[in-house]
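Re: the 103-residue chain
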Amino acid sequence: MKKILGAAVGVGMLLAAVVPTFAASNIMTGPDSINVNATLNLKLFSVTNTNFAFVTNDVVSVSNSGGNSANGNTMGGAVVSGGSQSYTVISNNVNHNYTRIRM
């Protein structure tokens, strides 16, 4: 009897794995009964993220020292120049994807 029950349970599990919707078996009833239930749930999805970016940076950075002076050009003279600074930042952020898949 146990071999028959084992075979029936095995067949029920095989059917549950093959049938894509719902398969269940109930062998006997009562406190020693064997109940098998399986569900196969398939979710297929495809995600495509395509990006293309063309970035051109034309940058001009200008610095002017300002406050220049020169004197004594015939006897060795001196040139005094003011300070100069130039600060340039280039930042390109392109081709970002955020994909969320809920299952």
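The mean pLDDT is 75.
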